[in-house]
C-alpha cells in the first residue's frame, strides 16, 4: 500500500494541501532542541494555520503530534503536500488509548483524553503529562519523578525510604520544602487547562504490609483536580482512598482565595466510616466524578456515592490540573488525623497501581481544554505559579503569599 492510502485509512481528515512537511520536520528535530524551545514549538502555529478570526491555531504541533504518527521520510513526493483540517475533535481521544477497546459513552460528554499506561510515558517530553517535585507540609513524602513507574500495563506510584537528597526549592510548591524521610510520585498535567467533565480512574490502593490487604495503616492514594493551592486560588476536587480501613474512601472539595494555610472552613468532606462490601487494597475499583457548573457527583464502581451543589462552598469554576499521587501523613503521635491512625503498621516500599485514566469533556464547556491544547490559549490567571518541576520549561510567574507578605517563588535548577 502506498503512503497516501495508508495515512488516509488512519486519518480520514487528511486532505491534499501544503504545510505538513515543515511541522513533521520540526517534530523530528524536537529531541535536539533545548526544553524551552521544544515547548515553544509545541504551542506555536505553523505557517498557513493561523485563524484570523479567533487568533488561535487551527493546527499546532501539539495537535499534530496527537493525530499524526508518521515521519516525513515515509512520505513520497505527492504525499508531502498533505495537511490536516478540521477541529481537534476529529482526532479524539488524545493520550494513549487502546485501539482494541470500546470506551463507554455518556450523554453530553465527549471522550477527550485516555491513558492506558500500556507503555511508559516520557514525563519530560509528553505534551500533556509531567511530574511534580512537591511535598505536602503535612506529609512525610517528597515527590520525585523516579517514583512514578510504568510496568505490566499499569502506572505504579511507589513510596519508599528517602536515601537521596532533593533540592530544597520545589517548583510545584513555589517555595522551599524541608527534607522528607520518604519519596513518592505525583503525576500531573502540565497546565491548568481542564475543567467541566467526567474524570475516571481504575486503581488499586496500596497494601500497608506485603501480602495482607486487611492490615490498616496510613496512606492517601488519589485522583483529583487541583489549582494553585495557598497562593491565589485554591481549588480542589478529590477522590482519596486511605489506609483507615479496607474500604476507606473519601471525597473532598476545597475552595479558598489567598489563604496561606489550610482551614476547616475551606473544605467539605464526605468521610464515611468505610464501604464495608469492598477491599480497595485487594482489588481494582473504578472511581469517578462529574464536575459540572454548580454540581459535582462522585461515583464508585459506577454508582453515585455523593452529590455536592452550591451551598456553603461553591462548586469550583476555574480550570485546574489533573493529578494522581500517593503520600503518607506526618507522624503526629499519639493521633494521626488523616490517612489512617495505624501509621506504625506501614512497611515500605508501598505501591498503588493505576490501570487506566479517562477524561470526558463536558460538551457545554467551550473554553477548557483549549481547542489547540496549547498554553497560549490560557489566561494569565491560569498560568499563575503553574510550573511543576524545574525541568518542565514553564516559567514560574506569580508571588508566594506568606505571613501576609507577597514573596518571589524560589528557584530550582533542572538536573
Mind sketching the topology for me?
Layout: H1 3-10, E1 14-16, H2 20-29, H3 35-43, H4 61-67, E2 82-84, E3 94-96, E4 109-115, E5 129-131, E6 141-143, E7 148-151, E8 154-161, E9 169-170, E10 175-176, E11 182-184, E12 186-189, E13 197-204, E14 220-227, E15 233-242, E16 249-257, E17 267-270, E18 285-292, E19 295-300, E20 303-309, E21 321-327, E22 350-362, E23 400-402, E24 405-407
Could you please describe the fold and organization of this structure?
It is a single chain. By secondary structure, this protein is mainly β. It has helices spanning 3-10, 20-29, 35-43, 61-67; strands at 14-16, 82-84, 94-96, 109-115, 129-131, 141-143, 148-151, 154-161, 169-170, 175-176, 182-184, 186-189, 197-204, 220-227, 233-242, 249-257, 267-270, 285-292, 295-300, 303-309, 321-327, 350-362, 400-402, 405-407. It has a single domain, classed as Jelly Rolls (Sandwich), CATH 2.60.120. It contains 4 helices and 24 strands. Strands 3, 4, 6, 7, 8, 11, 13, 18, 19, 20 and 22 form an 11-stranded mixed sheet that branches. Residues 1-90 have low confidence and may be disordered.
Written as H for each helix and E for each strand, in order along the chain, the element string is HEHHHEEEEEEEEEEEEEEEEEEEEEEE
Helix content: under 10%
Distance between the termini: 46 Å
So what's the CATH class?
A: Mainly Beta
Say what oligomer this is.
single chain
CATH topology tier name: Jelly Rolls
Signal peptide: 1-22
Pfam families: Glyco_hydro_16 (PF00722)
GO molecular function, one term: hydrolase activity, hydrolyzing O-glycosyl compounds
Family: Belongs to the glycosyl hydrolase 16 family.
Amino acid at each position: 500500500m502506498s503512503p497516501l492510502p495508508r495515512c488516509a485509512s488512519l486519518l480520514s481528515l487528511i486532505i491534499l494541501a501544503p504545510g505538513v512537511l515543515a511541522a513533521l520536520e520540526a517534530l523530528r528535530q524536537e529531541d535536539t532542541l533545548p526544553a524551552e524551545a521544544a515547548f515553544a514549538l509545541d504551542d506555536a502555529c505553523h505557517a498557513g494555520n493561523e485563524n484570523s478570526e479567533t487568533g488561535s491555531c487551527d493546527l499546532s504541533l501539539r495537535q499534530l503530534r496527537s493525530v499524526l504518527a508518521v515521519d516525513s521520510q515515509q512520505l513520497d513526493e505527492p504525499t508531502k503536500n498533505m495537511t490536516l483540517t478540521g477541529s481537534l475533535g476529529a482526532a479524539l481521544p488524545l493520550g494513549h488509548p487502546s485501539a482494541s477497546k470500546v470506551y463507554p459513552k455518556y450523554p453530553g460528554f465527549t471522550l477527550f483524553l485516555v491513558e492506558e499506561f500500556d507503555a511508559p510515558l516520557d514525563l519530560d517530553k509528553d505534551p500533556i503529562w509531567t511530574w511534580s517535585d512537591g511535598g505536602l507540609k503535612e506529609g512525610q513524602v517528597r515527590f520525585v519523578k523516579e517514583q512514578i513507574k510504568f510496568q505490566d500495563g499499569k502506572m505504579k506510584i511507589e513510596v519508599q525510604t528517602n536515601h537521596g537528597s532533593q533540592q530544597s526549592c520545589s517548583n510545584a510548591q513555589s517555595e522551599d520544602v524541608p527534607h522528607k524521610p520518604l519519596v513518592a510520585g505525583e503525576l500531573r498535567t502540565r497546565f491548568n487547562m481542564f475543567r467541566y467533565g467526567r474524570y475516571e480512574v481504575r486503581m488499586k490502593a496500596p497494601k500497608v504490609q506485603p501480602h495482607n490487604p486487611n492490615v490498616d495503616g496510613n496512606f492517601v492514594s488519589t485522583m483529583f483536580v487541583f489549582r494553585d493551592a495557598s497562593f491565589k486560588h485554591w481549588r480542589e476536587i478529590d477522590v482519596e482512598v486511605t489506609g483507615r480501613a479496607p474500604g476507606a474512601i473519601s471525597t473532598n472539595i476545597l475552595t479558598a482565595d489567598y489563604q496561606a494555610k489550610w482551614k476547616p472552613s475551606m473544605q467539605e468532606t464526605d468521610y464515611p466510616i468505610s464501604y464495608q462490601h469492598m477491599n480497595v487494597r485487594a482489588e481494582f475499583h473504578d472511581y469517578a466524578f462529574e464536575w459540572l457548573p454548580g454540581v459535582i457527583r462522585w461515583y464508585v464502581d459506577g454508582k453515585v456515592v455523593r452529590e455536592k451543589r452550591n451551598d456553603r462552598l461553591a462548586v469550583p469554576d476555574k480550570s485546574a490540573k489533573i493529578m494522581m499521587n500517593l503520600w503518607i501523613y506526618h507522624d503526629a503521635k499519639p493521633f494521626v488525623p488523616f490517612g489512617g491512625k495505624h501509621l506504625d503498621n506501614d512497611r515500605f516500599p508501598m505501591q498503588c497501581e493505576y490501570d487506566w485514566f479517562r477524561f470526558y469533556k463536558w460538551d457545554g464547556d467551550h473554553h477548557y481544554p483549549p481547542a489547540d491544547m496549547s498554553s497560549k490559549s490560557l489566561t494569565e490567571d491560569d498560568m499563575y505559579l503553574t510550573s511543576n518541576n524545574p525541568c518542565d520549561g514553564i516559567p514560574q510567574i506569580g508571588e508566594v503569599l506568606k505571613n501576609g507578605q507577597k514573596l518571589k517563588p524560589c528557584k530550582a535548577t533542572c538536573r
